[in-house]
Design the sequence.
């Protein structure tokens, strides 16, 4: 068997199930979540075999290279591979033989009806059914529709070549709450660990894997801030993930709704959100108005929760409204540019930031991509810069600039769409000199309006009252 980074699947198979609290773990699916899970569990001392079917990604991971951008995860991956606690394979059956607990981290994208597509999970279930020959704990880490734990159990039982499946495997739900850009810290220092299942022994096997995190006993842990452990049922754990993201999406959309109202009545939404965020019942986080949320989670999870409600005859009006407000913000940015420039055809627009949030290269459901698409469709010339993103697949006509100043060259308007910290270091007098126009739209309320206005540019934020800001500054 070929060795990957100093250890092979066969070598990890020989590792005792428990030695100094180390566990034998498999992670099926080495995308964003799976790679972070596998690397951090290996960092905690567990023996991990990760599965990846895509050849190019598998080759990169075997050599210790991260196929996506996530601060800190590349170093963790390299250390885990070099230490021989993490190896990669494209064979689920090999990973099963080398593990006692299997984390399922396959993709579950949105389908056309709003429900999550669980076809990848079904394929994995079929392979597991054909090769399971010793007791295993199957942990659903992917965000899956409520009821998927029971469905997975039934699917595996029905696909097994023999009917002697009683006690051979158990299913535990362990939803992930990783934020792109801070996934390693989120995994090692979570607010809570949620485990759902009706087999108490199986749940405790997963608790043992999380013990270093629960006790914060790993190097760099903080024993004074131990996360909460929530033991519950399968369906409840699955609902927790959707409910959590839905509530955060509601907070963002609430801030955006108030920004639009503030702009109409002459209020400053930044001050409004600051004031209400001081209420301990509300809290300040996720109350930043702007161009709206994006990424792979909020939209998908809201869609699944709305679709699940429809399946039971319930119209989730509040969740629908949150989604509608969010996507309206993208049109609002385009309309703001159209109004201020008196039309978009032939206008040069510079976009600063393309990823849906800073510290990631993820363009999935990124507001900047939708806004750039709409600008191009309206006849504008679009140049864009992002510190990490080098291209936008499928978007023709956009010019990728090597630095912000190149993107701003001869622009009639600039619009900031991702809160990369480096953009706060821009010298706005130089920005003014590079631009043809004077309009600077801060679609994230991220920059200092006073600096921009003092440089001779026209600041336009989302729900900002610039005159009041300058007076108080």
Sequence:
């Amino acid at each position: 068997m070929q060795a990957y980074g100093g250890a092979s699947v066969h070598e990890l198979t020989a590792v005792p199930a428990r030695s100094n609290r180390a566990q034998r773990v498999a992670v099926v699916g080495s995308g964003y979540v799976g790679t972070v899970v596998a690397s951090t569990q290996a960092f905690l001392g567990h023996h991990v075999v990760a599965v990846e079917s895509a050849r190019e990604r598998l080759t990169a991971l075997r050599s210790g290279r991260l196929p996506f951008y996530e601060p800190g995860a590349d170093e963790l991956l390299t250390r885990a591979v070099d230490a021989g606690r993490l190896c990669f394979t494209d064979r689920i059956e090999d990973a099963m033989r080398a593990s006692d607990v299997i984390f399922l981290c396959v993709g579950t994208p949105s389908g056309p009806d709003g429900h999550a597509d669980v076809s990848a999970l079904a394929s994995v279930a079929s392979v597991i059914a054909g090769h399971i020959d010793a007791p295993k704990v199957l942990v659903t880490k992917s965000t899956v529709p409520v009821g998927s734990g029971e469905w997975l159990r039934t699917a595996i039982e029905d696909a097994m070549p023999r009917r002697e499946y009683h006690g051979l495997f158990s299913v535990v739900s362990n939803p992930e709450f990783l934020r792109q850009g801070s996934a390693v810290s989120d995994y090692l220092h979570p607010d809570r660990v949620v485990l759902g299942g009706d087999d108490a022994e199986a749940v405790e096997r997963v608790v043992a894997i999380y013990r270093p995190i629960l006790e914060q006993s790993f190097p760099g842990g903080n024993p004074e801030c131990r996360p909460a452990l929530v033991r519950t049922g399968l369906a409840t754990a699955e609902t927790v993930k959707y409910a959590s993201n839905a509530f955060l999406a509601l907070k963002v959309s609430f801030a955006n709704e108030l920004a639009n109202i503030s702009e109409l009545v002459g209020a400053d939404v930044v001050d409004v959100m600051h004031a209400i965020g001081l209420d301990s019942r509300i809290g300040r986080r996720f109350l930043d108005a702007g161009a709206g949320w994006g990424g792979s989670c909020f939209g998908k999870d809201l869609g699944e929760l709305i679709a699940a409600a429809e399946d039971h005859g319930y119209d989730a009006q509040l969740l629908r409204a949150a989604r509608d407000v969010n996507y309206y913000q993208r049109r609002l940015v385009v309309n703001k540019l159209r109004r201020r420039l008196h039309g978009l055809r032939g206008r040069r627009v510079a976009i600063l930031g393309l990823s849906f949030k800073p510290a990631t290269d993820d363009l999935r459901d990124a507001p900047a991509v939708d806004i750039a698409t709409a600008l191009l469709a309206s006849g504008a010339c679009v140049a864009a810069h992002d510190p990490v993103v080098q291209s936008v697949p499928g978007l023709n006509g956009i010019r990728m600039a090597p630095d912000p100043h190149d993107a701003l060259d001869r622009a009639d308007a600039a619009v900031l769409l991702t809160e990369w910290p480096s953009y706060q270091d821009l010298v706005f007098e130089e920005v003014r000199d590079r631009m043809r126009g004077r309009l600077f739209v801060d679609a994230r309320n991220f920059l200092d309006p006073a600096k921009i206005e003092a440089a001779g540019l026209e600041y336009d934020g989302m729900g900002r009252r610039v005159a009041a800001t300058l007076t108080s500054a």
